[in-house]
Write the structure tokens for this entry.
Amino acid sequence: TLRFLKPDEITVDKADGTVREAATNDVVVTAWEKMSKSKYNGVDPQDICRQYGADVARLLVLFKAPPSHELEWDEADLLGQSRWLLRIWGLVVEHNHALAAAATTSQQGRYSQTGDEEALALRVAVHTAIKKVTEALHETQSFNVAIAELMKLSNRLGGLARLHGSKDFADALHALVVMLAPLAPHNASELFAALQVDQPTLTNADVHDQPWPTHDDAVLASAQIQVVVQIRGKTRETLVVPADADAATLEALALQQPNVAKHMEGHTIRKVIFVPSKKPGQHSLLNFVI
């Protein structure tokens, strides 16, 4: 009939997602349209806040697209943001449990061993996140980039259960929660309060009064990896490069090395295979197929 239907005039098949008109059971044509009262496709933010909370709604809007771009609203994406906040809560709870378990030992509030590769990698990840989130928020207002960097940091923390209860883990959580504050202020405030169990000087402090974390260039400079360069499976060179160097940069740098250039002479590159390191301390691999 070429008319817009109200939400209560349609049904959605849970099995295949088919949309039908409730009165006639006819299949309805669906399309992405700009929200409009006349099209009955508006979203009441109060309903979203009641079901998911204001922080989740805010995160979805900021993460889905830059402010200057249109975004396709999909309530299914709200679950992703909600789960992310729950994972951060899980990190704080697990860290506090580790502190409680170590309360009667000399390990409470301990720093990880200086040479601990996982702890060193965590410090690099924290300072990298601080640098990128600060640039995204203060310089380019790229809120989606800032949230993505915080997600990377929380994912890194999620794989470091061995460091629960350590000072390194506490410092990382503190930085994560402080940087989360302008994006999800309500959750950040409660998370910060939960973290105060190991920091008596911050009792009754508000996360929104905390100084913004600053990155340490010396820590970032230490973030280097080894890249083994192979030609037809034989090692010809080893590069030491910044940990965030991409495959294209590594390829160009490798081809500038005299020993690599010598073995490439007269050959055509058929394929370049880059295998990044999966664990701290492991080398990456760059293989030229000729």
Remarks:
- The chain has three domains: 1-42, 75-218, 224-289.
- The CA atoms of residues 181 and 188 lie 5 Å apart.
- DSSP finds ten helices and six strands in the chain.
- The radius of gyration is 25 Å.
